[in-house]
Amino acid sequence: MKINILKSAIGCLTATGFLFSATASYAEDTLRIVSWGGAYQKGQSLGIFQPAAKAMGITVKEDTYGGISDVKLMVKSGADKFDIFSSGAGSCASGAAEGVLEKLDYSVIDVSNHLPGMYSDYCAGADIFSVVAAYNTDTYGEGKGPKTWADFYDVEKFPGTRAMRSKVDAQLETALLADGVPMDQVYKVLDSEEGIERALNKIRTIKPHIAVWWSSGAQHAQLMKDGEVDMTTGWNGRFDVAKEDGAKVAYDWQSGIMDWEGYGIPKGAKNKDLAMKYIAEMMKPEYMAEFAKYITYGPTNKKVYELGLMTDERAKMMPSHPDNAKHQLTLSTEWYSKWRTIAAEMYTEMMTE
Amino acid sequence: MNETSLNISIREVTKKYDQFYALKDVSLEINSGEFMTLLGPSGSGKTTLLMVLAGFTNPDYGSVKFGDEEVILKPPHLRGIGMVFQNYALFPHMTVEQNVGYPQKLRGVSTAETKRSVEEALSTVKLEGLGHRGINELSGGQRQRVALARAIVFKPKILLMDEPLSALDKKLREEMQIELRQLHDTLNMTTVYVTHDQKEALTMSDRITVINDGELMQLGRPNEIYEHPNNHFIADFIGESSLLPVTVRNGKASLNGEEVTLAEGAERSGDFLLVVRPEKAFLADKKVKGSNYFVGKLIDSIFQGESQLLVVKLSSRDDGHEVRVRVPNESVTQKALPLVGENVTIGLKVADSYVVS
Amino acid sequence: MTIAEMEKPNERGLQKVAANERLTFFGLTLPYLLMVTALIVIPVGWLFYLSFIGRDGSLSFENYERMMKSKAYIRIFLTTFKISILTTIICAAIGYPLAYFMSQLSRKWANICMIGVLIPFWTSLLVRTYAWLVLLQKKGLLNNMAIEMGLISEPIKIVHNTTGTLIGMVHIMLPFLILPLYANMRAIDKDTLKAASSLGATPTRAFWTVFFPLSLPGLLAGLLIVFVLCLGFYVTPAILGGGRVIMAAMKISSNIELYFSWGAASALGVVLLVVTGIILFIASKLVSMDQLGNR
Asked: What residue spans in chain A does CATH classification 3.40.190.10 cover?
C-alpha cells in the first residue's frame, strides 16, 4: 500500500518532468545534441542532424542551450544533459581551456578536406558565418545603406537607430575597422587595454544612436524584420532568412568578420564513442551542402564545392566564397582566449555608462 | 422642544430588494427624548430601518425628519447622530482616547476641550483611566463602553444602537441594559435601539415598535405590548406563550367543544388563538368560578431556579396541544408538585383569557 | 512522608501529557525547519563561502575587488534598485485603488475580479513579456494605432528602455501586490468606516483616518514582496530593456559565463542580499511594525 502510494507519487513527479529530466537515461543508440534554436538550428536539424541520424540508424534528440557556460556548468556539476553541442570556435576554445571538453578523435572524424584552420582539437568545424552590418532597405534604399563599418559608425551620412551586441564578441573589431585600422592590424591594436579602450571610445561616439543591445540571433533578425532599428551588427545567415521571410534587410560583405561554428563533446559524455562517429558523419559534404540551402553559412569542407554540391548562385551567398571572404577580417580565437574576460567587463562598463 | 434631543418622524419608508420588501410603508413618530426600541426577529427589517435613519441605506421612497429637518437626502456624516454598532466597530489602530476623541477631532474641537469631553464621556461609561489602552487590551464589555463613549462624546441629539449588547454574556448584558437606560435618562437624547431580544426591549424601552416582514406590527409601551398583543405573531414573539385554537360563534368561544369564557374579543366570530402565558396559568385543585380550566397530562417538569416550568399535554379529544405553566419557586417548596405522567388541571383566570387572530 | 512530599493525583501523568504536546508542536514545525535549513540557511551560507573563492579555487577577495574596480557594478546595482523601487511604487499606485475597489464589491463580483487579476498567471512570464514587446515596439500595435489616430506623427520609444521594462515588470508584479492587500482590505471591518461616517467623517476623511491606516499591513506586505521579487528579475528587463537596463540578475548570469566561477556570481548575490537587508532594516525602523500590527 505504502509502496504503491510512493510509486504513484514518483510517477507524478516524473510525469511533470521537474525532478528527473536531468538524470533521465537514454538508450545506447540515442544521442542528445544542443544548438542555438531559431532558423539556424532549423537548418541544422533538417540539413544535418536528422539525415545523419537516419543514415546511422540512431535517434538524435535536439534541444537548445545557452552557450559554452552551460557546458561548463553541466560538466562541473556532474550532470548529464547532452552528448554534443554546437558552438562558435572561440567559445569552444574557452571550454577547452577550462578542461570541460573531450578531445576529438580525428582518426574517426575525417577533416582532411577542411579549409585550413577550420577545426581544432576540441571542435570540428561545420560552417562558416560572418558578422555583418545589416541595414533596413526601406530606410536607405537597396544598396544605398552602410557598406562598411566606417559607414555604420557614420551617423551623419547614415542617420538612424542602431543595434549592437550586448556581448563584446566581434563588436570591438567593427569599431577599429571603422576607425581606419587596417584589417591585419586589428588584433595587434586590440592586444592591450589601451587598444580595447580605443575601440570602446569609437563605440561611445555612436552610443546615443544605439537603441538596442541585442543578445541573440533571433532577436537581431526580429529587430530588422520589425523595423525597430535601422541597422545592426549580426550574423549574415539570420538576415538572409529574414529577407526570404520578407524583411527589408540587406548587407554588404565589405563589413564582414568571419568566424566558424563546430561541434564539441562535453567531458564525460555518456555516449562519447557514438558521438564521435556521429560528428564524423556530420562532416560529410552532402550534409553541409544541404544545410547551406536553409541558411547562408558556408561549408568548412571544400568537397562541397569540388563535388558541385552547391549551385554557383548559392555559393556566392556564402561568407566563405572567395569573392566574399577577400573583404573580410577573420576572427582571432587566440585573441579571445587571452582578452575576452577583460574586454567583456570593459564593454559592460561602456554599455552601462 | 428639548435642546438635547430631537423627535424623529418617519413616513412611508419603503425599501424593496427584488420582490422582497425589507420595509413596507413604515411610518413612525419617535418623541424627543424617548427610548424607542425596534423589536423583531432577524430579517424583519428593524436593522434596515435603523440604517435608513443613520443614512447607510437609502430607501426607495419615504421621508425621515429629525425635528423639522428632512434628512433622507443627507449623507450619514451630515446627520449628526451618534451610533453604536453590534460589533463595536472601534478603530483598532487607535487608543481608547483616540477612538473617543475621533468625532471631536473631526469637528475641529480644541485639544483641551477634546481632552475634557473625552474624559467626561469615559467617566460616564465608567472607563476612567483606561484612555491610553489599546483596543486589543480591552474586554468585550469595556469595548462596548468605549463604543458608547465615542457615540455620545459630541452630545448628539439622536443616538442609534444596533443590537449593542448581543455579543456580551447574559449577566453583563443584563447589567448593561440597566446602565444604558440610566445613561439615557441622564443624557436625555432620543434613542433608537434595535434588538431581537424581547426581554431587553421590555426592560429598557419607553415604547416598543414590533416589526416583522418589513411591516410595523404594533407600537406601544412595554406592558401594552405584553398584555395586549395585536396578533398571534406578537403574542408568540413577546414572552413565552402557548397558543390554543378557539372558535368563536355567537359570542361564545369554545376550545375543542368545551366552552371558554373570554375577558374580551368574543364579539367577533371566527377562528382565533387563545393566549396562555405560563406565569398566568396555575395548577388548580378545584374548579371555582371566574376561571377557565383545561385538563391534561404532565409530560415534562423543568427546574429553572426561580420557578418550575411544567409542560402539560391537553387531553379531551384534543390532538395534543401543549400548555406551559410556570410555578413560582416559593410554591415549589410549599406544596408537592405533580409528577410527570400524572393528570393535572390547569386554570386560567377569565381576566387573563384573551384571543388573538 | 509529609503531605507536601506526597504526589498529587495524576501529577506525573499530566506532566507527561504536557511534554507530549510540546513534542507534537515541535514535530509539526520540524518539516519547515528542515526545509528552511536545507533551502535557505545552507545555500545562503554556501553563497557567502563561494563568494570568497577565487578563480583558482583558493580563498580570496578577488570577486569583491573586481566589483570595486569597475564602475559598471555600482551602476548595475543602482539600476536594479531604481527599477525595483519604481516598479513597486507604480504597482502600489495602480494596485491600491484596484484592491480597494474589489474589497468593496460583493464576494461574487470580487471573485470574478480576482480571476481577472490572476489570469496573467496562467500565461508564462516569457509569453507575456514578448507580448509587451509586440505591443510597444516602434512599429508595434500601440505606436501604429496612435499614429493612425493622429495622436503622434513619429513613433515614440516605449520599449527597449526603462519605460518598457517598467511596463512589463509592473504587469507581472501587480498580482503580488494586490493579493495580500486585498486579503487585508477584506478583513477590515466595514462597520468601522460606517462608524467614522456616523461620527461625522466625510468619505475622504474616513478613508484616510480609518481605512488607509488599517490597510497598511497588507500594503506593506505587498510592497515588500514586489520589491524583493523585482530585485531578482531577469527575463523581463533582458527582453524589454533592450540591453540598456542591466539588472543584477543579468550580470550574475553573464559573470558565470564570463568567469565560469560560482564565486564571481556569488559575490554579486551577496552584495545584493546585504544591501537589500540594510534597506529593509532602515525601512522597518522608519515604519514601526508594532504600530501597524496593532489589530
From this structure: 26-128+260-325, 130-258+329-352
Question: Do residues B55 and B175 both lie within one domain?
Answer: yes
Q: Specify if B2 maps to a domain.
A: no
Whether residue B134 lies inside any domain: the answer is yes
Between the alpha carbon of residue C56 and those of residues B294, C44, C123, C261, C264, the distances in Å are 108, 22, 43, 9, 12
Q: What per-residue confidence (pLDDT) applies to A17?
A: 38
For residue B8, pLDDT over 60 is answered with yes
Chains touching chain B through at least 3 C-beta pairs below 8 angstroms are C
Instruction: State how far residue B189 is from chain C, nearest Cα, in angstroms.
Output: 16
How many of the other CB atoms lie within 10 Å of CB of C190? 13
At which of B175, B195, B227 does a domain end?
B227
- The arithmetic mean of pLDDT across residues C19-33, rounded, is 92
Same domain (yes/no): B218, B244? no
The answer to whether residues B110 and B198 belong to one domain is: yes
Instruction: Tell which B residues from 102 to 131 touch C, by Cβ distance under 8 Å.
Output: 102-103, 106-107
Section A24-49 average pLDDT? 86
C163-206 pLDDT per residue, tens = 999 999 999 999 999 999 999 999 999 999 999 999 999 999 99
d(CA B173, CA B148): 14
- pLDDT 10s digits, A192-239: 999 999 999 999 999 999 999 999 888 999 999 999 999 999 999 999
Pairing type for strands B190-195 and B35-39 reads parallel
Q: Which CATH architecture has domain C85-245?
A: Orthogonal Bundle (1.10)
pLDDT tens, position by position, B214-267: 999 999 999 999 988 888 899 888 888 888 888 888 778 888 777 888 887 667
Is B235 within a domain? no
* Domain residue limits, chain C: 85-245
Domain that holds residue B266: 240-356
Give the mean pLDDT of C280-291. 70
**How confident is the prediction for chain A on average, in pLDDT?**
89
Considering the domain A130-258+329-352 in this protein, what is its CATH number?
A: 3.40.190.10
Q: Rounded to the nearest 10 degrees, how much is the dihedral formed by the CA atoms of C130, C134, C136, C142?
A: -140
| pLDDT surpasses 60 at B118 | yes
Please check whether residue B79 touches C, CB under 8 A.
yes
Cβ separation C192–B134 shorter than 8 A: no
Instruction: Provide the whole-model pTM.
Output: 0.81
Dihedral of the alpha carbons of C22, C27, C29, C31, in degrees to the nearest 10: 170
Rounded distance between C-alpha atoms, residue B237 and residue C127, angstroms: 65
Within a 10 A sphere around the Cβ of B107, how many other Cβ atoms?
14
Check: CB of residue B59 under 8 Å from CB of residue B13: yes
- Largest separation between any pair of C-alpha atoms in chain B: 77
Amino acid sitting at position A280 = A
B293 near B287, Cβ under 8 Å? yes
The answer to whether the beta carbons of residues A170 and A257 sit under 8 Å apart is yes
Is 70 exceeded by the pLDDT of residue B188?
Answer: yes
From chain C, the residues in CB contact with B91 under 8 A are 192, 195-196, 210, 214
CATH classification at residue B28: 3.40.50.300
Q: Which of A148, A151, A338 is nearest to A257 (CA)?
A: A148
Is 0.90 exceeded by the ipTM?
no
Specify if B3 maps to a domain: no
Query: Residue A114: what residue type?
Result: H
Contact, A86 vs A57, CB < 8 A?
no
**pLDDT digits over A150-198, tens only?**
999 999 999 999 999 999 999 999 999 999 999 999 999 999 999 999 9
Please indicate, yes or no, whether residues B38 and B70 belong to a single structural domain of this protein: yes
Contact A227 C138 (CB under 8 A): yes
CATH of residue B298: 2.40.50.140
**How far apart, in Å, do the first and last CA atoms of chain A sit?**
64
Q: Which CATH class is domain A26-128+260-325?
A: alpha beta
